[in-house]
Design brief:
The chain is of the alpha/beta class and 300 residues long. The protein folds into two domains: 3-175, HUPs (Rossmann fold), CATH 3.40.50.620; 188-295, 2-Layer Sandwich (GMP Synthetase, Chain A, domain 3). It is built from eleven helices and seven strands. A hairpin with a 2-residue loop joins strand 5 and strand 6 (245-253). Helix 2 crosses helix 8 (165-175) and helix 5 (109-125) packs parallel to helix 6.
Length: 300
């Protein structure tokens, strides 16, 4: 038995204990039952949690929120993954912009959005305990939504078991989870600077532009011989909004520089963006860390 295997087994046992604790809280349904619901985006963290929970013998129901803040492509992927793994899947439509506190897009947007979203999911999941994919690495970033989860009593088994993002990728690969290298794709509202309000047409334009950009990145990555090129490694971020649309920047991870700094790639990007209504590409920027661009002066 290798050292890595031993560490993985210990971490999995800790996760099983955390899941057991989530299901051990007495409810009207049962004093204890191996049934739970998971807020499921289709991203790596919620997929890993669902995959591991079922491996441990839990009955898992996946709850997916869709709306203008979520790419239709990502919602379709979430549904396909659930079907492929024979896991019950329920969809809930929610437009967060219907809530003026979220639409205002200030620094507490994520708190109000999580509060609204998980309040609805709690009703949908009852009487099962509701879990999410928050993990220990999230505690080091600006995550106002975590406060809403605590207030609502949402369980975060990965955080409870001390799982870091690297643990999820490593152990996911070890236990057979598909796409353990999957990149994070936060909701489309995170593409807007604080103080600039989103609307549904702009969100739809961003979703379409990012889906097309992902295809372009996949093609260029494959041509450059970069593995896992199909996994998006970029963000399109709003810089300014006018009555006629929005100026955006393409933010690309440094590791993609081998092809994204070329004039050929720049021309392809501009040609693509010229076909997208409402959005105008202003610049292509490379950065080491794509996450939390508008939160870098803040800490949770």
């Amino acid at each position: 038995m290798t050292k890595a295997t031993t560490v993985n087994e210990i971490k999995l046992r800790q996760l099983d204990e955390a899941l057991c604790a989530c299901c051990s809280v007495p409810t009207a349904h049962a004093a204890w039952n191996k049934e739970l619901a998971i807020a499921f985006s289709g991203g790596l963290d919620s997929r890993f949690l669902a995959f591991a929970a079922r491996m441990f013998g839990y009955s898992v129901t996946l709850l997916h929120v869709h709306g203008p803040h979520v790419s239709p492509h990502e919602s379709a992927f979430a549904r396909t993954w659930a079907d492929r793994h024979n896991l019950p899947f329920k969809r809930l439509f929610l437009n967060p912009l219907d809530d003026a506190r979220i639409a205002a897009n200030d620094e507490l947007r994520c708190y109000f959005c999580k509060k609204r979203l998980f309040d609805e999911l709690l009703r949908l999941s009852a009487p099962l305990p509701l879990c999410d994919g928050t993990h220990a690495s999230d505690t080091s970033a600006y995550r106002p939504g975590r406060k809403a989860l605590r207030e609502l009593g949402i369980y975060s088994p990965l955080e409870m078991a001390g799982f870091q993002k690297d643990d999820i990728r490593r152990i996911g690969a070890d236990i057979g989870l598909d796409i353990p290298w999957q990149k994070a794709r936060p909701c489309l509202l995170t593409r807007f600077p604080y103080g600039i309000c989103a609307d549904v047409p702009l969100l739809n334009a961003l979703a379409g532009a990012e889906e097309n950009m992902a295809k372009l990145m996949e093609s260029c990555s494959r041509d450059a011989g970069i593995p896992h090129g199909g996994e998006p490694d970029f963000r399109l971020r709003i810089q300014t909004v006018t009555p006629f649309g929005a100026d955006v920047e393409l933010h690309v991870r440094e590791q993609r520089k081998s092809f994204t700094q070329s004039e050929s790639f720049s021309k392809k990007c501009r040609h693509l963006m010229n076909s997208i209504p409402l959005l105008r590409l202003q610049a292509i920027r490379h950065m080491g860390n794509l996450s939390g661009y508008f939160d870098r002066s803040r800490r949770s």
